[in-house]
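Sample pair:
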Amino acid sequence: MSSRHPAQDHRVDPGWGLFNTVVITAAITGLLAYPLAPRPYDLGREVVGDQELARNVWVGMEGDRVGYHGLAVATVERLQEDQTHVRGAGLGTEGTAGEPVAPDTRMAASPIAGVLPGMILADMVERDEVALDSTVGDLLPELDPADPDLTDVTMEELGTHTSGVTWTEAPLPNQLWDLATKQPSDKPRSVSHFLERVSTEAEVDDERRGEREYSHTGLNLLGHALAAAADQEYADLARERIFAPLGMEDTEVWTTATGWSPPLVHDADVGRPIRFTSTEADGPAEGLVTTAADLSSLVKAMIDGSAPGHSAALPRTGDPREGPQHGLGWQIEKVGDHLITTYGGTASRNGHAAWIAFSGNRGAVVMSNTHRGAEDITLRLMGVRDPDRDDNRQVLLSSWATVLPTLLPSVAVLAFALRRRPGVRWRRQTDRAGLVAYSAIASSILTYTYLVGFWHRVPPWVWILGVVLTALAIALGVRRWPDLPAVRGPRRWLRRLLLIPITLGALGAVLLLGPMAADMTSSVP
């Protein structure tokens, strides 16, 4: 007759212990992660201004409201030579206080800023103050660039983005960091700093010269060269030549010197205000702050030909049979059966979007205080729809670009924590070093995808699932910890050596990205 210790009758079934660990960890982590998950904006039903125009916007959006927070829109229709019908509306809100957006709400419009240097150039040419073939060396004689070809670049080349001027790009880690924090780390602040960096870092790519390729640096260089020729600051030059003649009283090239509060911009995917960033150096390319009402005045003047420098919209480069043509800033393209003159885009790192367009006697303006696009809405307000512009592939790519980095690292670390059979060469068996390093890496990637993921395309529960899977891996690793060796496999000394920098680097990214993300809203009113 065998005897058994009483405690043996009350042992916990290992299977039930594992089940309890999984259930409890998943439940607690899910509850904690839910309030922290990305909360993309959803455009509210608030409307200020023309109700019918607002309804047209709603219809044109076809129910795709996620990621939008506030929109300011305007349409212009020239009925007769001396009669123009202008309508404006604001939809949704701005900031966290729920202030409704109106047609006269001042908003960031960086993507439209690029038409202004070209219009100023055209105006100055008409006044015989400069010529289209005036060079950088002519207008900025004090500039001593490392690449001497830069002094021979003409104002027309800068205005049409055919100069071939390039700028040394920031290293990939800097670009990834800027994308996450929405705060560019290497922007020149002053005009003098910009010109100094142009002298040392800018160069002319002979292979690109003559081909149209957008140049942020070239646009800023054009604006500041024209300002130097007029012996003014660029912001004053834009006000004198464009804004004042058109009665655009609520429009400025924003700098800290204007005395205006910065416009409210927002992260569409995470659902919060962020800090608007623009410098005096970047004024020509992205410093525009305006209203839908003021932009409708610009559109009206472009339609009737009374805008200063309106000839900037005439095509100067490109073949209409092969694609869009380009003027001095403006783009002319065939959309369906309509020839549209347009400009705009999305400032994804600066939390807003803007688009302006006109064709014949009609025009439209759309500004968004998140980085959700405004182009489709603008064209639909003009009665234009081109099925070829519905880029479902881009939607699919952005969705997978969010789902894969969110879930794959979490699934991988969970699989590593559960692995019990000896692996092949590329499939290492579980050890403590791997658990620590892989868990830290998965956590840092989750933090990064939180900040840069396309959450207006992907349901936020995907991020919650990634957090839960990573937490399960950590919990199961802790459960197995006493039975695991420190390091397995060949070259153990190398794995021990790499463990500390990899783990500290990954955890450091988590600790740095969190406060940096919080700092994005620290100066938002």
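The chain has two domains: 14-40+393-519, 70-390.
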